[in-house]
Specification:
single chain, alpha/beta, TIM Barrel, two-stranded antiparallel ribbon, 12 helices, 10 strands, 46% helix
Amino acid sequence: MPATARPRRSVLYMPGSNARALEKAKTLPADALILDLEDAVAPDMKAAARDQVCQAVKSGGYGQRELIIRTNGLDTPWGQDDLTAAAKSGAHAVLLPKVESAAQVSRAEALLTANGAPEDMAIWCMMETPKGILHAEAIAASSARLGALVMGTSDLVKDLNAQHTPMRLPVITALGLCLLAARAYNLAILDGVYLDLDDDAGFEASCRQGLELGFDGKTLIHPKTIETANRVFAPTPEQVAHAQKIIAAFEAAMKEGKAVVLVDGKLVENLHVEQAKRLAALAAQIEKLQA
């Protein structure tokens, strides 16, 4: 199954210094959790948060949720210790902040490997600076451990001296470049957060725009937004039924040696079958996650 087939509809940031939040996360219906040691943790709490997050992951209780530890950057006093601790935590991935080059990824990978990280521990990269966006392809190609790109649109808007707008036109180019890089190298890619928690309609519109652009899911800052993200980024029952119809019709046609396949009067080609199989696989994974 391609990396992008795993459900990542809702990916919730949780402050690593808040023990109650880490415990509550075990009951939330998010597909994945980013346990944050960076922005959400004050400098004098960094070491304690690191220990708390790694212990929480090791202790378990998070079910099928994907667990990601966002570390501090390697140019900070805490980054190296974060990666060293995360390597043996049992987390599915580490999320590197403000990635701007392939060299940063390589350095993090070397630290993880040297400290015993299992081969299936992935590296995710925050794409949140102009330089990072311009180097998106090199970053996407930098490591076999790379699993996902995560848009940091809040920092990006700040660095661009731009504005947050409903259609997000100031960052559309950046979103597109990162989407191209992710798909070129079979990576997952997650849309940035929505900051106005009182604007439910605006949040749903942002999710739908992300879906239309091609994102796998949305990063979130509050549990109240999980349900909407899960709903928007999940295939509908009608889409799943149609996908299964395409797969069955194509397989039947191949057995009969037919060169042309029609479903509901429309020509079906290999590309449609690939899309249908991916959608059906995603739906199956969502059902498994919710079981």
